[in-house]
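REVIEWER CHECKLIST
Item 1: Sequence provided? yes
Item 2: Single chain? yes
Item 3: Sequence as submitted:
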Amino acid sequence: MTPSRASSPLQLSTRLAMVGVAVTALGAAIWTLTTAPLSHAPAATNARLTGVVAVDSARKYVLARPLDAAGWLGWVGASGMISQRPLPANAEAMIDVAARLAPLDPQVLRARALALAARGNNRGALDLLDQLAQAGGEESDAALAAMIPLVGSPDFQAFTVDSLRNRNPVVDALLLKACQGNVEFARLASFAQTVVRVRPIPDRVLRCIGERAIASNLVPFAHWLWLNGASTLPKSIGFVVNGDFDSVADVPLFGWKISPGGEYRDGFNARIRPAETPSERGNVLAIRLNGRSLRPPVAQQVLALPVGAYRLEYRVNNQSSRAADQMTWQVVCLERNLTLTSAERRVLPGDSGWSTHSSDLVVPPECTGQLLTLDVGSRLSAADGARGTITFDDIRITRLGNE
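Item 4: Structure as written out by the authors:
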């Protein structure tokens, strides 16, 4: 057995002093909290009666085990005082006792941070919660959650700037937490802009914020976020991303969303594949039909077209029993589900079964986000299904005139 190392007189005296301070604080707090009335009065409602019972249980626990910091925190939590403004003196006394008993306990540190925020010291609270979040473990997530209400405050802006300067790894985790926690989008967007102006953000964070922006009809912001915040971008970026299907990499937010389908469930199988015939160039989008009813969507891409007039063009090779005009690309307005592409289509025959189709469209001012989607025709024609393969390539949108 290894003999235990004896504490030095200085260490022992320091520890005794700390215990003495805690005991003194305990005595004062117990006298105050057991003789002073609680800051809330019992009410007749069931919810408040339940709260009174919880407070009474916490009080009894503390009186039985006054050296357990968890009891003091439980008392604060049961009483609901931590959410009151200004923070009641009783709550501050309880948290102070817990901090003296267990100064490094994660729950105590989080309670101290909440108390700082309640006093208006948001920066002090953020710094304390940041230490907890960087420590990892179960308390890390709780610390991030405690920081969420402070997102968007002036102190939070300064905290973010300092964290980016110091390459604080908590920033990305907090950004994702804020997105998943449904923080008001204006506050979330401001936080994201501050980060993206300094460096890219992980794809998972980018997707979360971008999808919320698109769902809120804020496609221009989502597009800005993607262009400035993505770690990698396609080699060339037009109004349609990867319209020639040459890249098979997953592009977040503004890349292709191709449903693989199921030949027995959806009536089709769709995939990007390499060219298989001399008439094909690079990769193509091939859709195999099996005769069953078609269940869209097949392929889609979110667009961020500014106001103006455009032309949509694509190449198609239809080797199926389905008419070419029953499988066409359309541009619709996201917010209003309004089809923007004209019903008038031009067809230019090509070689080896290929033809080029085009149609014009106008984006009005109220349409700030669009969806490029492969339309399978009316519900009746989709129910009829088809057999064979339809192949698409070189999908692009160009601006018309001087707009």
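Item 5: Key structural point noted by reviewer: Confidence is low (pLDDT under 50) at residues 1-49.
Item 6: Recommendation: ____
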